[in-house]
Structures are given as C-alpha cells and as structure tokens.
Design brief:
379 residues; alpha+beta; five-stranded mixed β-sheet; four-stranded antiparallel β-sheet; 11 helices; 14% strand
Length: 379
C-alpha cells in the first residue's frame, strides 16, 4: 500500500483546524459583557426569539431604531451596459454591507451559556438595568403579558471571571454609581447571590465583601431585607460571574414576567374596592345627615324626647291586661274570698249539717267555712 493512500492521524486534522490550540467559540459567554440573563422552562429557541421582540420593541421607543447599514443608489443611465454595471455595483455593495454587519456588534445578540434553560443576551446598550426597569414598569401599569416562554429577566451590568481577585474590582465598578452618595444620604439595600455549577466560590465570601465595599463608600447605608431600595445581584454561571444593581426588585416579583401582571391586577382591584367602600360611606353619611335635618321638635327648637311607645308595644300590654281580667273573672276577686288557712277536712265533714243549712239560707260559698263559725254552730 502506497504512502499517499495511507490514512492520516487525528492530530493532523486538529492542527489544521486550530493550529494545535483549543478552538474557542466567538459567541460564548465571557468576561466584560453586558446584557440580560433570562430563565425559561424548555423551548430555548422560542424564548430567544421572544426576547428579541420584547427588547427591540422597547429599545426602539427609548433609543430609536437600529441604524441601517445598506443605502440605496439613485444613479441610473439609459444604456443597457451601464445598467448592468450598476446592478453589479449594487450587488457588490450589498455583499460588503452584509459582511460589515456580520463583523459589527448588534444591539442584542444571543450567547452560549452552556447551561440548560438559561439564556444570556448580550447588548451594546450602556444601561441594561434602565431598559429592564422600563419594561416591567410598563407591563405592571398596562397589565399586558409580553412573554410566554421566558420566566425571569435579570439585567447584568458587568461580567467577570468567577474568582475573588476579579470579582472585587468588578463589584466596585458596579456599586460606585449607586452607593457613592453625598454624606448624610443613606440607602436601604440587600444582596442576592446564586451560584450554578461552581464549587470554588461560596456565598459566605461574597456577601461580607459586598457589605464592606458599601460601608467604605458611605457608612450611612444600612442592610434591610424587608424594605430595600436597591438590590445587589450576583449570578455565578460556571466560570463567569454576572453583577448588577437593580431597583424595585421585590415590587416586580424578582423581575418575573408572569408574577408582575398578577400584582398589578391585585393592586388595581384593591384600589377599586377602596373607592367603592368610600362612596358607600359617603352615601350613608349623607342619608344620616338628611335624617337629622328631618327630626321633629316640640316647637321650641328642641328635639322631642318623650317616651312614646310604638303601637306593637301597646298591643302587647292590652293583651296582657285582658288575660289578667279573664283570670280574675274565673277565680273571682281575691279580696272577696275568705281566708282558708287552717281548715281541716275532718271539721268540714263534721259540720255538714251546718253547710246544708247555709245553702238553704242562700249563702253563695257554703263550702268555705272558717273553724270559728263551725265551732259556733256546734255549740
């Protein structure tokens, strides 16, 4: 077998591809970038397309449309040869413009994070935090859902290598515009740190470093987790650390596309309920004032405070009195009845002849006989 037909080793092709060095993709997440860190549940390609639409929509309103790279030619000649030359020149110019556009950095460009369900879209804008705050403010005010696949979008001011030697100087650059305030002005702040696929850095080392840097800038700044004005975000992804300082972090539900709509709707419904209750209270107050004006008086300008009872109470009293009268009619007048205390049944049986005599004489109550009268008859 000839040498020309011999199979070449794999190292030969590696040298041809990268000159013996590891090939590094141009579109990977690296230090010195700004952008937006987006989380999603599967459907990464659809999420990237969705984020392009949202970011371009709001960036056009704030900063204007992205500059066009191609220009139209207005030169035209009558001859066919000149028209063909113009067409060739136009095609060459469009080709050169496309090559320039591919080399130049776009306003928003997706980068490879090498992490599942995590997207980083780098940007050429100077203030990604301002753009993100504008997006969530508009969504909360209009109650319009812009995202379907994306869950959260965290703006990133600066990226650096994930080691303490690089994180501390990068953190100073990020904190200075927000915490370098005049003496006497103190802010409430807190910090959020999340580490993914990295065991060399711990939260115990990052959070005290943030507090020390903020205290050096102004000792009046205080740590407050409940009602914080600024939130320092630290996101570590493999060997890259993303840093930013954001406002209204908890108001926007940690910059969540779906939860911020719910909070906006609940606040508007609460305001409507308060307005309705206020109207009802005002109507009740008006009715009470009208009733006070229509109170009858006794002619001297004073209110009539006589203890007059309603007709229902009078009817109840009348029925009670009539019942008492009926009882007296049945039992007789209690004063007319003689005292029957001390009567013995044996005495009554012995005095039967006296009782019969009283009946013959016309006595109405012959059975009620005192012991004294019985003794007198016997005697």
């Amino acid at each position: 077998m000839s040498e020309s037909k011999r199979k070449r080793p794999k190292s030969y092709y590696k040298k041809c591809a990268g000159g013996g060095k590891k090939f590094k993709a141009v579109n990977d997440l690296d230090a010195g970038m700004k952008g937006f860190l987006v989380t999603c549940n599967k459907y990464e390609r659809e999420t990237v397309r969705e984020m392009y639409n949202i970011l371009n929509e709001y960036a056009d309103t704030l900063y204007g449309p992205e500059t066009a790279t191609s220009e139209k030619t207005d030169d035209s000649d009558d001859s066919g040869e000149e028209e063909e030359e113009d067409i060739e020149k136009a095609l060459e110019k469009e080709r050169s413009d496309i090559l320039k556009l591919a080399k130049t950095e776009r306003r928003f460009q997706n980068t490879n994070t090498k992490f599942k369900n995590l997207i980083f879209i780098r940007t050429a804008l100077e203030d990604p935090c301002g753009l993100a705050h504008h997006i969530f403010t508009d969504m909360m005010a209009t109650h319009t859902q812009k995202a379907r696949y994306a869950q959260r979008m965290i703006p990133v001011d600066l990226t650096c290598k994930a080691n303490m030697k690089n994180i501390e100087p990068a953190m100073k650059i990020v904190l200075t515009p927000h915490f370098q305030t005049a003496f006497g002005v103190g802010l409430r702040y807190t910090s959020v740190c999340k580490i993914r696929n990295n065991n060399s850095i711990q939260r115990i080392a990052i959070l005290p470093m943030i507090g020390r840097l903020v205290n050096e800038m102004n000792p009046l700044h205080r740590l407050c987790h409940d009602d914080s004005e600024l939130v320092v975000i630290v996101e570590v992804i493999r060997n890259i650390c993303c840093l930013s300082v954001v406002k209204d972090f908890f108001t926007f539900r940690k910059y969540n596309f779906h939860e911020v709509i719910k909070t906006g709707k609940s606040e508007t419904e609460g305001n409507r309920d308060q307005s309705k209750s206020g109207k009802e209270k005002s109507e009740v107050m008006k009715e009470n004032s009208v009733d006070e004006l229509n109170v009858p008086d006794d002619g001297d300008g004073r209110e009539d405070i006589s203890d007059e009872k309603p007709e229902s109470e009078h009817k109840i009293e009348d029925t009670a009195i009539s019942n008492l009268v009926d009882v007296n009619d049945k039992t007789g007048d209690p004063e007319s009845q003689p005292d029957v205390v001390g009567i013995d049944c044996k005495d009554v049986e012995n005095d039967r002849p006296a009782i019969e005599q009283q009946l013959l004489d016309g006595n109405s109550n012959p059975a009620v006989v005192t012991t004294e009268s019985a003794d007198a008859d016997v005697s």
